[in-house]
Amino acid sequence: MNAQQADATSGIGPVAGADGLVSFDRDRLHAGIADPEMDSMRILSETAMKFPEAMSFSSGAPHDGNHDLSKLSYYIDRYIKHLEERGVPQQRITRLMFQYGPVSGFIQDEVARMLKHDENIGVAPEAIMITHGFQEATLVALRGLFASSDDVLLTVSPAYVGIRGAARMLDIPIKGITEGPDGIDPEDVAAAARAVRAEGKRPVAVYLVPDFSNPSGTVLPLEARRRLLEVAAEEDLVILEDNPYGLFSRDGEKMPTLKSLDEHRRVIYLGSFAKSAFPGARLGYLIADQDVTGAGGTTRTLAQELSKAKAMYTVGSSSLSQAVIGGILVDHDYDLISPTRELAAVYLERLETTLEALAEHFPPARYAEHGVRWNTPRGGFFVVVEVGFEADLAAMERSARDYGVSWAPMSMFYVEGGGGRALRLGVSNLKPEDIRTGIARLARFISETPRDRG
C-alpha cells in the first residue's frame, strides 16, 4: 500500500480522485478550520454583500466620514520630517520606508509617548511591539503564554469572536465567565480559576474589554478594576486587556485602564489604531513590560521575547502603515484624545439615535406586549437587543432578505452557549437617518416573527 492509499484508508491528508484531482475531507483539517462556529464572521460579511440594499447593523466598522485621501501622503511626509529632525540619516530613513523593518516595529517611541499622554501608561519603548492589529497581538501573546495543553484561558462571555478564534487556532482551551450588567465580576474570575485548578489544569490568563465591551457595551467599574488586579495577584493570572473603544467615552467619563492601575505588571495591554486613527493601516500594538530572565541571567522584556513568535507569523509590520500612524501621532503631539473628540461625538449621536428609535418602536412601558428590551451603553459601538425568538444566522438572513436589515446573532459571541434570543446592533458606521430607517425595518421583522413561548 502506498502513502496516498494509506491516507485514503485512514481518512487523513489529501486524496486523489479518479480524475487525479486532490480533495480534502474538511473534518480532517485543523479543528479551528473545521469548526462551523469559526465561520460566523464570514457568513455575516457575505450576507451583507448578498443583500446590499439591507441596512447593515452586522459589523462594528469605524465611521467612514473622517477620512481624507490627501492626508495619507501628508502623514508619511510628516513622519519622515520627524525622523530628519531627530538627526536620522537619509539613507537609514530610505531603508526604513522601503525595506523590511525591525520585527517589533520602529514607532515604539511615538506609541510610548502617546500612551503616557492618553492613558497614563508609562512603559519603555522596548516593552512595546507593533503588530498587524489586535488579532496578531493576541496570537503572539497567547502563543507565548500558553505552553502546555493543560493551560486554560479564562475569558469574559460574551466576547469578541477574535479571542475565541485565536485560542481555537492555537488549541488553547477556554473557560467562559458570563458577565453581568457591569461587565465581568472579579469574584467570578477567582471562582473560575479555582474550578480550573480543581480539574487538574492551570488557569494562565483572563481576557476582557473593560471599556464598552464588544458585543455587550459594558464598562467595568473602577472598584471592580482594582479588585480584578487583586484577584489576578491572588490567583496568579495575567490579564489580557483589550481596549479599542476607550477613547470614545463621554467627556469626563473616561476610566483609567487596568494597565495604568497595574503596579505589579499583571496586565498585557492590547491596543489598536483601527478605531481611533486609521482602520486601513491595520496596525495595533502589544505592551508586555514583564521581565523575562534567560540563560546567564540576561533580562529582556516579554515583548522582546514574544518577537520570536511575531517573526514567524508576519516577519514585521508594514513600514508605510507605521509611517502613517507615526505621522499622526507626531502631528497631534502624541495626543489622540483631543482629535478624537469629534469622532466620539459622532459615535455617541449614533448610539443615542439607536436607543431613541428602539424606544419609539418598542415602548418600555409596553414590554409585556412586545417582549423586546435592550441595554443602554454609555458609549461604544454596540447595543444588545433581547427578542422573543431564536435570533440565529438563519433568522438574520431572513431579516436581511425579506426586511432589508441585518444584524449579528449574540449567540456567536458566547463561549459556552447562551444569547440565543438576542442580537447585536453595530451602530458605528450608519448615519442617524439610516439608523432610524434600519430600526423601523428591524421593528417590523421582530413584530412579524412569532414569539417562542417555550
Topology, element by element:
Elements: H1 3-10, E1 15-16, E2 22-23, H2 31-34, H3 40-50, E3 55-56, H4 70-85, H5 90-98, H6 108-119, E4 128-131, H7 133-145, E5 151-157, H8 161-169, E6 174-178, H9 186-198, E7 202-208, H10 222-234, E8 238-242, H11 258-261, E9 267-272, E10 284-287, E11 291-293, E12 299-301, H12 302-313, H13 319-331, H14 341-361, H15 367-370, E13 373-374, E14 382-386, H16 393-403, E15 405-406, E16 408-409, E17 422-426, H17 432-447
Parallel strand pairs: 3-15, 5-6, 5-7, 7-8, 8-9
Antiparallel strand pairs: 1-2, 4-10, 9-10, 11-12, 13-14, 14-17, 16-17
Helix pairs in contact: 4-13, 7-8, 7-12, 9-10, 14-17
Can you walk through the features of this model?
The structure is a single chain. This protein is 42% helix and 15% strand. It is an alpha/beta fold. Strand 11 and strand 12 (299-301) form a beta hairpin. Helix 7 packs across helix 12. The relative contact order is 0.15. The mean pLDDT is 92.
